[in-house]
Amino acid sequence: MLMTGPDREVFISGVAEAPLGEVRDHSELSMIALAAREALADAGLTLRDVDGLFVNYLGEEGTVQVGEYLGIQPSYSDSSDLGGAAFVAFLGHASAALQTGRCRVALIVYASRQRTRATRKLNHWNEKATSPQFEQPYGLPAPMGQFGLLAARHMYEYGTTPEQLASVAVTARQWAGLNPKAWKRDRLTIDDVLESRLICAPLRRLDCCLVTDGGGAIVLTTGDRARDSANTPIRVAGTGESARQWHIPQLPSLEASPGVAAARAALQMAEVGHADIDVFEPYDASTISVLLALEDVGFCGRGDAGAFVQEGNLSITGSLPSITSGGGLSYCHPGALGILLVIEAVRQLRGQAGARQVPGATVGLVHGIGGLFSTAATAVLVRG
Questions:
Q1: What is the residue range of 216's domain?
Q2: Are strands 76-78 and 10-17 parallel, antiparallel or unpaired?
Q3: Which of 5, 81, 106, 297 gets the most CB atoms within 10 Å of its CB?
Q4: Residue 122, SS3 per DSSP
């Protein structure tokens, strides 16, 4: 049944992180169970209420395995493969399922122990490629090789400097210093970034995201149930997603990024402008990812993001507070960061972010990417 009126609106009513950092006393499934129970308690619900399940990027642990472990037999499930962007895209997928009566309570979950299991390898992505002969013979390590190419192109076209890229990492670390759960909290300088080991030119070690364990859970409900949440529910005002290419040579230009279409759709659906956004949570798989996100979403013109970050606009006193948890660069990057971006945005909009709280934040934008800069998903979240 298609819902109408205020009750048709969809809200995030519960969020929780799974154990983070280095997890040796849990499996991925038990990490999910911990996060799911905490998020559902946050929403004033239990596992018995869940009838929609959204899981991705877990290898063999998909919706069936997770449902079995949690004791859930969902009436609606989704495991769309959009990589790290999936969990932002799931906000749109779950909203559609809730609004059409396919489910009443949707649970999005994820967990990874990539650090503890030492499963992350620089070249494993190429094994999945449909035409690896165009990249692999030349030694391109995925995914950082692809981000290195994007950074080099951005420098070539717009004059972006290594110092501007490094400013992203320094900003993320400043935010992480305010987050007691962040993996890296010690002081970081531009020189520290520029002197770190070269990974994929021009990206250096501190331009690249962490490799950690972690995960989380998100609960979504419709307006009638969201009123019973233990905490302030956050409305999903707009969503968008796009997929462009797998191989980086198939991206026609930086302007053709899948993030452009995803962001445009989300902003149009939410009927908000860039000036309305109080907090921005981009997927910082690397420092160049943040510059591209700022330009794709439209906060900056093409080529302007480097100077924008260098001027301090992403800091807590800046014009666009961003990466407020410390992000994938300093807080946590468990293989797929999107779910943690949503959790951080919700906490900011609820006013629950502690020392890193952005004053008066009521509208947030989350922008996820996946694959080899192949997919993107954007969500606009609103308090009240």
A1: 6-117+212-226
A2: unpaired
A3: 106
A4: coil
